[in-house]
Amino acid sequence: MNVGIMGCSGYAGRQLLNILVMHKKVSLKALSSNTYAGKEAKNIFKLSQYTGQLVIDSDVEFLNKATLCDVIFLALPHKTSMANTRKLLKLNSRLRIIDLSADYRFKDSMVYEKWYDCIHQDKENLDNSCYGLTEMNREKLSDTKIVGNPGCYPTSVLLGLLPILSFENLDLNSIIVDSKSGYTGAGVKPESYKMLAEGIDNVYPYGGTEHRHVGEIENTIEKITQTKAFIQFIPNLIPVKRGIITNIYINMKVKMTYSEVLSQYRTYYAKEKFVIVHDEIPKLSWSVGTNNCHIGLLVDERTNRIIVTTTIDNLIKGASGQAVQNMNVMFGFDEDEGLKYINQNI
């Protein structure tokens, strides 16, 4: 299958490239990066396992190769993705697109516009899109034209909540989420707060109460439960390169035991290749370098609260790995193709 990546120079794009060069069903046909246009991908990204001679295009030049591809991954900023999606589909109507930005994560353009403070420029294609949390929408992926790959924080939160969102005795407005992410989650663009002297031996809460991923999490919960949800979410940067550990706190209206809740998680995820439920709290290191989400939980009978801990690699399960997992489902490949052993070189 012929594949292109538009925007291969960011952390997510580089990780995606490392996965796809090892994917047995993929032939890379086009790459774009305005930063590295005209240079050979193998040399720029140190792809020792790649034997091809693919030259990186500018974004404009990349569009000329749309007809060569069956699927294109967009590792671009929001707004840029939707502008290019429209162009790509006009050039190649059979093309399927997996977008790692936020542009196709919301079916309702008004919700997108509220949280991203811009007008959605491709509303007609929202009807052809699917939210790409694989474990939630697997059956819808095979027929979709555009996949809106979830954000890294929402992936860690929603995978921690999916098994219990059907419980009627939960207070959906009591959800508090505390997430901690490595610095690759802040992107490759150099900024002062990412300097070693600022980040090392430090923890940095950011985003206040208006982090954009709140909208994505609430919107998804509401679609599943058909109930309005308000969550409290605070992300933090911690002095590691990659990985997210998330603690989720949710109040019960009726008491449940630890065994009852754990059984629900194990049943829900029994057939999933990339979600592992433990009878202990997972460590961040368990997920780094993998497409796995590790889940552990506590039930505090004193406060009548469920506490769920999840860990993922923000660049893999939180971005590029989940994107490839979605592609595998869309095209009927083994779901773990290309994702068993992952090169972390970025």
Tell me what the structure shows.
The chain folds into two domains: 2-150 and 317-330, 3-Layer(aba) Sandwich (Rossmann fold), CATH 3.40.50; 153-314, Dihydrodipicolinate Reductase, domain 2, CATH 3.30.360.10. The chain is α/β, with parallel strands linked by helices and 346 residues long. α1 packs across α12, α5 (109-116) runs antiparallel to α10 and α8 packs parallel to α10 (212-225). The mean pLDDT is 92. The protein has twelve helices and 13 strands. It has helices spanning 11-20, 41-44, 59-62, 80-91, 109-116, 123-126, 134-141, 152-161, 196-199, 212-225, 258-268, 316-330, and strands spanning 2-6, 27-32, 71-74, 96-99, 129-131, 146-148, 176-181, 204-205, 232-237, 244-251, 275-277, 293-300, 305-312. The strands form two sheets. It has a seven-stranded mixed sheet with strand order 8-9-7-10-13-12-11.
Number-wise, the strands total 13
Main sheet specs: 7 strands, mixed
Distance between the terminal alpha carbons, to the nearest Å? 24 Å
The amount of beta strand, in percent, is 15-25%
| Strand and helix order | EHEHHEHEHHEHEHEHEHEEHEEEH
* CA radius of gyration: 20 Å
Task: Identify the CATH architecture of the largest domain.
Answer: 3-Layer(aba) Sandwich
Number of helices: 12
Residue windows where pLDDT falls under 50 for at least 5 positions: none
Rounded mean pLDDT is 92
Q: What do we call the CATH homologous superfamily of the largest domain?
A: NAD(P)-binding Rossmann-like Domain
Q: Report the CATH topology name of the largest domain.
A: Rossmann fold
The strand line-up of the biggest sheet is 8-9-7-10-13-12-11
Helix share, percent: 25-40%
Indicate the CATH class of the largest domain: Alpha Beta
Task: Supply the helix-strand structural class.
Answer: alpha/beta
What's the domain count? 2
Shape: globular
